[in-house]
Amino acid sequence: MSTQDLFFQAYDRAEIAYGSTPSAELAAYLDQVRPTGKAIDLGAGAGRDSLALAEAGLDVRAVDLSARGLDRIIERARQIGLLERIETIVADAREVDLPAGEFSVVVATTVLCHLPETDGWQLWQRMVRAIHDTGMIFAEVHTTEDPGSELPPGCDNTNPVSETASAVLHYFRRSELLRWAMRTPGLRVLRYEERLEWDYTHGPEHQHGKAVLLAVKDDFHPNWFGHPVAFPRQRSDG
């Protein structure tokens, strides 16, 4: 066990931390838009989003500092016949090559908040440059609503704190992730939400404060009908 792998125990359990269900907003986008090409999952963990991307037909690079988490991705991918679509990379997300215009989908689920604020902003800008003209970014971060935050309102939240809260270096303030997107030229936000979540996937039950954002390039207008779909097309029986 590496002393640097803060998530080793979380990913080494029979019931793997964070489960196997992909982020709901990402899953909705994949189902509706059906992107093709390459995807990169920064902070892939044990692969709940990486596997969904591969299952959607994308070629995926799964990046994480936890070698144990990536081992579990390989195990899961082999079991469901997706191993050839996934490449795993043990690395800090800040050090990964993100060529301009390379990816159809860039995912960063609870990664930007695991970095110092300045480093997270720099990585965000590189992520935006890495999507092509019909690419999409999905980001999820912990916010100051989280009971692990030292800032209000989280510091006043008496609900249980995550066992991995010490890995969060920057709790995003209200609307901060949205402001990052609005400050980024050429980006259009499809969905932004701040919410509380109960988590039962690792350790004792605990609560999170989260912000989620889904964005595309300004001139890209995919078949996105919202999450959940607001007004789906009616199908005739004939």
User: How big a fraction of the residues is strand?
Assistant: 25-35%
The helix fraction, in percent, is: 10-25%
Tell me which CATH architecture applies here: 3-Layer(aba) Sandwich
What radius of gyration results from the CA coordinates?
17 Å
> Average pLDDT across residues?
92
CATH topology: Rossmann fold
Element-level helix/strand string? HHEHEHEEHEHEE
Q: How are the strands of the biggest sheet laid out side by side?
A: 3-2-1-4-5-7-6
Q: How many angstroms separate the termini?
A: 60 Å
Largest sheet: 7 strands, mixed
Class per helix and strand makeup: alpha/beta
Q: What's the CATH superfamily, by name?
A: Vaccinia Virus protein VP39
Structure description:
The chain has 238 residues and is α/β, with parallel strands linked by helices. The chain has one domain (8-217): Vaccinia Virus protein VP39 (Rossmann fold, 3-Layer(aba) Sandwich), CATH 3.40.50. Helix content is 24%, strand content 25%. It contains six helices and seven strands, in the order H-H-E-H-E-H-E-E-H-E-H-E-E. It has helices at residues 8-12, 24-33, 48-55, 67-79, 117-130, 176-182, and strands at residues 38-42, 59-64, 86-90, 103-109, 131-142, 187-199, 206-217. Helix 3 links the parallel strand 1 and strand 2 (59-64). The longest helix is centred in the middle third of the chain and has 14 residues, at 117-130. It is globular, with a radius of gyration of 17 Å. 43% of the residues are buried.
